């Protein structure tokens, strides 16, 4: 397994993430976010996690992004919103958060470099769905129940918050 | 060359997390802030997957599933709140005026 696909997917993911946070039109940012998620799925595949890669495509790039697309459609943003967004993205607003993020990035990189060089494994072993499923429904079955509680709470609260908007009963559903 | 992949993946996760943090801090549009939070969650998930690949353990993907369900619930509730704000008569999605929400 060559290292080249991993590097390509990583470059695409980093560029797409940068494009997401700098676009003025929400739909463009959403499309770049989909590109980011798909390339992250490629990264997962290159790291030997095909199950996570498929779930990333199906649930993230599929279900969650469809939720976002529906909300952008319902918000009905226009040209004035884009102009206001451009106005908000003035350099004076960006400079402080950019400095803070660069500081965090530098600190994390220094921490990564300072980690003791443990003996790296020679090869990446692909961990398939079977091993994940055995682990998930063996020692971690309680966390599965907790996740189901979380999803139920999300469903109920989304239904409660989104009930009866303009009489259309626009529940946002569940991913 | 190939063995360095988990470290490189951690580096990518760091970059993605910093980018998402930049988005949350700098944008004022609620929808874009939610997307940046999704980027940060993905960076955390990538760190878990990289750790799982480093130690040949399936626990990394188990934690990825937890993060996935967390992100789905968070997106559903956040988007519902955004729709509610929009329906409350606020045409802009400015995060600074969220205190007008009632109920």
TrEMBL record, chain A:
Its EC number is 7.1.1.-. One of its GO terms (molecular function) is oxidoreductase activity. The chain crosses the membrane at residues 6-22, 29-51, 57-77, 89-114, 134-156. Pfam families: Oxidored_q3. One of its GO terms (cellular component) is plasma membrane. It catalyses: a quinone + NADH + 5 H(+)(in) = a quinol + NAD(+) + 4 H(+)(out). Gene3D superfamilies: NADH-ubiquinone/plastoquinone oxidoreductase chain 6, subunit NuoJ. It is found in: Cell membrane. It is a multi-pass membrane protein. InterPro entries: NADH_UbQ/plastoQ_OxRdtase_su6 (IPR001457), Nuo/plastoQ_OxRdtase_6_NuoJ (IPR042106). Keywords: Cell membrane, Membrane, NAD, Oxidoreductase, Quinone, Translocase, Transmembrane, Transmembrane helix. Belongs to the complex I subunit 6 family. Composed of 13 different subunits. Subunits NuoA, H, J, K, L, M, N constitute the membrane sector of the complex. NDH-1 shuttles electrons from NADH, via FMN and iron-sulfur (Fe-S) centers, to quinones in the respiratory chain. Couples the redox reaction to proton translocation (for every two electrons transferred, four hydrogen ions are translocated across the cytoplasmic membrane), and thus conserves the redox energy in a proton gradient. This is NADH-quinone oxidoreductase subunit J. It comes from Gluconacetobacter asukensis. The gene is nuoJ.
UniProtKB/TrEMBL annotation, chain B:
Keywords: Cell membrane, Membrane, NAD, Oxidoreductase, Quinone, Translocase, Transmembrane, Transmembrane helix, Transport, Ubiquinone. It holds the Pfam family Oxidored_q2. Belongs to the complex I subunit 4L family. NDH-1 is composed of 14 different subunits. Subunits NuoA, H, J, K, L, M, N constitute the membrane sector of the complex. NDH-1 shuttles electrons from NADH, via FMN and iron-sulfur (Fe-S) centers, to quinones in the respiratory chain. The immediate electron acceptor for the enzyme in this species is believed to be ubiquinone. Couples the redox reaction to proton translocation (for every two electrons transferred, four hydrogen ions are translocated across the cytoplasmic membrane), and thus conserves the redox energy in a proton gradient. HAMAP family: NDH1_NuoK (MF_01456). This is NADH-quinone oxidoreductase subunit K. It comes from Gluconacetobacter asukensis.
């Amino acid at each position: 397994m060559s290292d080249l696909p991993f590097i390509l997917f990583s470059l695409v993911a980093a560029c797409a993430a940068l494009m997401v946070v700098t676009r003025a039109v929400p739909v463009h940012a959403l499309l770049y976010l989909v590109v980011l998620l798909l390339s992250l799925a490629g990264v997962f595949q290159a790291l030997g996690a095909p199950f996570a890669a498929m779930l990333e495509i199906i649930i993230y790039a599929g279900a969650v992004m469809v939720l976002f697309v529906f909300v952008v459609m319902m918000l009905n943003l226009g040209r004035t919103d884009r102009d206001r967004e451009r106005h908000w993205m003035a350099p004076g607003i960006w400079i402080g958060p950019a400095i803070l993020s660069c500081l965090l990035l530098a600190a994390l990189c220094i921490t990564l470099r300072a980690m003791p060089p443990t003996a790296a494994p020679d090869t990446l072993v692909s961990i398939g769905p079977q091993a994940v499923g055995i682990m998930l429904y063996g020692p971690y079955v309680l966390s599965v129940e907790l996740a189901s509680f979380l999803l139920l709470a999300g469903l109920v609260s989304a239904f409660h918050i989104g009930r009866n908007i303009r009489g259309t009963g626009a529940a946002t559903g569940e991913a | 060359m190939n063995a360095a992949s988990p470290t490189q993946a951690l580096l990518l996760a760091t970059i993605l997390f910093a980018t998402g943090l930049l988005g949350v801090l700098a944008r004022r549009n609620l929808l874009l802030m939610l997307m940046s939070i999704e980027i940060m969650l993905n960076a955390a998930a990538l760190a878990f997957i990289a750790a799982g690949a480093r130690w040949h353990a399936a626990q990394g993907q188990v934690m990825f599933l937890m993060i996935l369900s967390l992100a789905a619930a968070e997106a559903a509730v956040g988007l519902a709140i955004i729709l509610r704000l929009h329906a409350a008569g606020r045409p802009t999605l400015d995060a600074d005026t969220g205190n007008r929400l009632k109920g």
